[in-house]
Amino acid sequence: NIAINGLASLNSQKFHILVDGCKKVKMVNMKISAPANSPNTDGIHIQQSSEVTVMNTHIGTGDDSISVGPDHQNLVVVGLLFLLLQGLGVKISDVAYEDIHGTSAA
Asked: Of the candidates 36, 17, 24, which has an alpha carbon nearest to the alpha carbon of residue 82?
């Protein structure tokens, strides 16, 4: 069980936050930022984990805002604001989403 509230991450290399092999993670009210021209700066990368929730978070990076690796189950994303338009493609199944802003998707 992990709870993160109010964390700010600025100009991190690679992943700002890596969730790997965790269960029951809740991340709320975070601000993640890197320049648009900074390659490979994923905001949050989640893999081999379950029951991860990301809520009310602002993400603007040079790569994926949220990336999901192998073997992840039950990801809930609510109330995100994507500040840059990189990395907004989604190719996963069994997705529930609501209140997502700043994407070019219809």
From this structure: 36
Radius of gyration of the chain (CA): 13
Structure tokens at 66: 């949220």
Contact 77, 27 (CB under 8 A): no
* Unique residue bearing structure tokens 């907004």: 88
Model confidence over 21-54: pLDDT tens digits?
999 999 999 999 998 888 888 899 999 999 999 9
The pLDDT of residue 2 is above 90:
yes
Query: In this predicted structure, what is the pLDDT of residue 88?
Result: 52
User: Per-residue pLDDT tens for 60-104?
Assistant: 888 888 888 888 888 888 888 877 655 554 445 556 666 766 666
Residue type, 19: V
Distance CA 71, CA 86 (A): 24
- Residue 35 near residue 43 (C-beta atoms within 8 A): no
Cβ contact 65:90 at 8 Å: no
